[in-house]
UniProtKB/TrEMBL annotation:
Keywords: Hydrolase
GO molecular function: hydrolase activity
Every AB hydrolase-1 domain range: 25-254
PANTHER family, sorted: AB HYDROLASE SUPERFAMILY PROTEIN YCLE, MONOACYLGLYCEROL LIPASE
Protein name: Alpha/beta fold hydrolase
Pfam family for this entry, one: Abhydrolase_1
Length: 268
């Protein structure tokens, strides 16, 4: 694990592989309420093939600084850009899952010239609904009041397809441990900021690089229809529906996820 001081905080991150200097590094952005270890199967697979893989902990998560209050997606995106500057990296293939995918779209809005390929996994491009804004506000207060434990136990069967919770206990335990270890203040700040996210649907048509849209066919948070909408708006994209996976196909079906991502890297 490495750390960097950027934008007034300390960011924990892993920087793996990098044997092939001709490729742009792959940067993977975790979702809520997880940390960079959710990308372990991808780091191990692609790092072993010579791809430089960088996985940061977002502010408020993992080993990065917790900043209470409200963290907009723009702040997360600028933290990633600052980390790239710290590492002397110009262009990247950028991917994210769920909230991480929305951070990827925000990064593209701000820094399109720094991206050579996009991965959008189990995420959605639409702005939050009025009901969603209220729900996120209530959930933020709940997490601060109760801690992460009750929420983690409640949503585990939605994060990981119920049959995979039973069949893949190590994966289920990893997901549960990440959620329980997350700072309630950090998670609440992200919920409040995410509620104010803009609509990215229109901006997708301006993506000028290859893109990959991935979704689990059992995902209860981001349905296949959201993935299809992004795929239709992106000028040069591939849609992959991962069978037998819920909200975290990179952990539930890592081989299928890695195959799809490898195809994107070959194009980017």
């Amino acid at each position: 694990m490495s750390t960097a001081s950027v934008n007034g905080i300390t960011v924990g991150y892993d920087d793996t592989g990098g044997g092939d200097g001709d490729r742009d590094p792959l940067v993977l952005v975790h979702g809520h309420p997880f940390d960079r270890t959710m990308w372990r199967p991808q780091v191990e697979h692609f790092g072993a093939t010579g791809v430089r893989v960088i996985t940061p902990d977002l502010r408020g998560y993992g080993e990065s600084t917790v900043v209470p209050g409200k963290t907009p997606l723009e702040t997360f995106a600028r933290d990633i850009a600052a980390l790239l500057d710290h590492l002397g990296i110009d262009r990247i293939v950028l991917g994210g899952l769920s909230m991480g995918g929305q951070i990827v779209m925000e990064f593209h809005r701000l820094f399109p010239h720094r991206i050579s390929g996009l991965l959008l996994a189990d995420t959605s491009a639409q702005a939050e609904t009025a009901d969603g804004v209220r729900w996120r506000a209530r959930m933020a207060e709940r997490l601060v009041r109760e801690g992460m434990g009750p929420y983690a136990d409640e949503v585990l069967p939605q994060m990981v397809a119920p049959e995979n919770v039973r069949a893949m206990p190590a994966v289920a335990r990893h997901v549960l441990d990440m959620m329980r270890a997350t700072s309630p203040d950090g998670a609440a700040a992200a919920l409040r900021g995410r509620a104010e996210r803009p609509d990215y649907v229109a901006t997708l048509s301006r993506v000028a690089v290859p893109a990959l849209v991935v979704v689990g066919d059992r995902d209860e948070f981001t349905p296949i229809s959201d993935a299809r909408l992004m795929h239709e708006r992106l000028p040069d994209s591939t849609l992959v529906v991962v069978e037998g996976a819920g909200h975290m196909p990179n952990l539930e079906r890592p081989a299928a996820f890695n195959d799809a991502l490898a195809a994107l890297l070959a194009r980017a």
